[in-house]
Design a protein that fits this description.
With 128 residues, the chain is an all-beta fold. Helices cover 0% and strands 46% of the residues. The strands form 2 sheets. Strands 2, 4, 5, 6, 9, 10 and 11 form a 7-stranded mixed β-sheet that branches. Strand 5 and strand 6 form a beta hairpin. It is globular, with a radius of gyration of 14 Å.
Length: 128
């Protein structure tokens, strides 16, 4: 069992930056693929970024590519999402998620149904 707790959300002006953190419990964190998703009011949950267990492989949705960066520190059981050049359309609740290892081939996971554990979310609001 893995518990995830996000932090770092808040209110920021357009063009600004935020860094989200996701702290995970459990000794198996370093074996999990991790991801970030977001959900805006009235919209479906949207994939943002994913990172492999080692941190060597990352993937991004086109909407955030070049502006957001996912990273992890397995020694601290924490995954991060650095968000730069924020836009009003980035406003949403941001969730981190953990995927149990199932395959030696698929190392990053881009759909919500591939993830086994979810955090409670942190609100990010970008004002224009």
């Amino acid at each position: 069992q893995v518990q995830l707790v996000e932090s770092g959300g808040g209110l920021v002006q357009a063009g600004g930056s935020l860094r989200l953190s996701c702290a995970a419990s459990g000794r198996t964190f370093s074996s999990y693929g991790m991801g970030w998703f977001r959900q805006a009011p009235g919209r479906e949950r949207e994939y943002i970024a994913a990172i492999s267990w080692s941190g060597e492989i990352t993937d991004y949705a086109d909407s955030v590519k070049g502006r957001f960066a996912i990273s992890r520190d397995n020694a601290k059981n924490t995954v991060y999402l650095q968000m730069d050049s924020l836009r009003p359309e980035d406003t949403a609740v941001y969730y981190c998620a953990a995927a149990r290892p199932r395959s030696s081939i698929v190392l990053v996971h881009t759909t919500s149904d591939e993830y086994d554990y979810w955090g409670q979310g942190t609100q990010v609001t970008v004002s224009s």
